[in-house]
Amino acid sequence: MVVVNWNGRDTTLGCLHNLRASLPGDVVVHVVDNGSTDGSVEAVRQTHSWARVHCNGANLGFAAGANVGIRAALEDGAEYVFLHNNDAVVDPGTLPALLDAAERHPAAGLFGGRIYHQRSTDVLWCCGVRMGWAPNLAHLRGHQRPGAGRFLQEEDVDSLTGCGLLVHKDVWERVGLLDESWFVYVEDADFCARARKAGFRCVYVPTAIMEHSGAGSTGGGYSPGRKYLTAYGSVLFLKRHGTFKLWSGFVMLDVVLWPALMLVSALRGRGSSALAKGRGIVHGLLGRPVDRGVVDR
Which domains, ranges and CATH numbers included, belong to the chain? Predict the structure, then answer.
């Protein structure tokens, strides 16, 4: 299991406390710290000495950070690697349910579960991902909708989120690790797209339950940092995997309608976020390097 941390000491400590209580004893947890300055590394080593900590000297982003942990897990001989966001909580039955699905679908390779935003109020965050502009590139199935009666069947999906993603070692070996061209966001969609092109499948497993608060490192919601990074990542995804349908949706909803979005956002006090999204689109289209400093603003 791989958990990436960047200045999220308390969040990561809570995550590890949950994992210690929820996971089988033979699961190795790799915590990768991206140059935190809040005492995260010291706190993890002091309170969760059972976890293996890897320290990067700077904030390398999720993809590059996760790759440090993935390499370490594969070098240890792991058959599966589970990517797990530090702001997510797993049920004790989550990993067993994913591993059971993996045993029943040995050729699939990628597995993800039913993720709630607020389980106590039955509000979903993601039940697998459908790729298409509605209104964004990656549509989180069930997002912010009641979970009762929805997405209760195990099924193949277009993509899965890196919030909680179980991947067989064969996929990493044949497809490669996460592409570090993405700083954060959309790297999981790219990885799933590459895996599907290689003949693997993404399987949604409804009995694997998680809860996810979401987007803590970049400000969450409609913050400028998040809108810039998702826009940039979406354009990069289109350049590599775009179909006529995906490009058409992007042009109509993110280019033609951007002035209207800018106006509405300005009236709602979100003009800076709309501008950041436009900047991310332009940087992506021009092939400019991603502005990693947006997470610090």
Answer: 2-212 (3.90.550.60), 224-296 (no CATH)
Mean pLDDT of 155-173: 98
Q: Which pLDDT tens digit goes with each residue over 112-155?
A: 999 999 999 999 999 999 998 777 788 999 999 999 999 999 99
Poorest-confidence range of 61-75, 102-116, 117-131, 245-259? 245-259
C-alpha 162: how far from its chain's center? 3
pTM score of the predicted model = 0.93
135: preceding bond cis by omega (within 30 degrees): yes
DSSP per-residue codes, the chain: -EEEESS-HHHHHHHHHHHHHHS-TT---EEEEES-SSSHHHHHHHH-TTSEEEEESS--HHHHHHHHHHHHHHHTT-SEEEEE-TTEEE-TTHHHHHHHHHHH-TTTEEEEEEEEEEGGGTEEEESSEEES-SSSSEEETTTTSB-TTSS-S-EEESB--TTEEEEEHHHHHHH-S--TT-SSSSHHHHHHHHHHHTT-EEEEEEEEEEEE----TT--TT-HHHHHHHHHHHHHHHHHH--HHHHHHHIIIIIITHHHHHHHHHHTT-HHHHHHHHHHHHHHHHTPPP-GGGGG-
Q: What are phi and psi of 243, to 5 degrees?
A: -105, 170
Residue type, 100: D
Q: Given a cut of 50, is residue 218 above it in pLDDT?
A: no
- The closest of 101, 105, 117 to 207, measured between CA atoms, is 101
Percent with pLDDT over 70 in the chain: 96
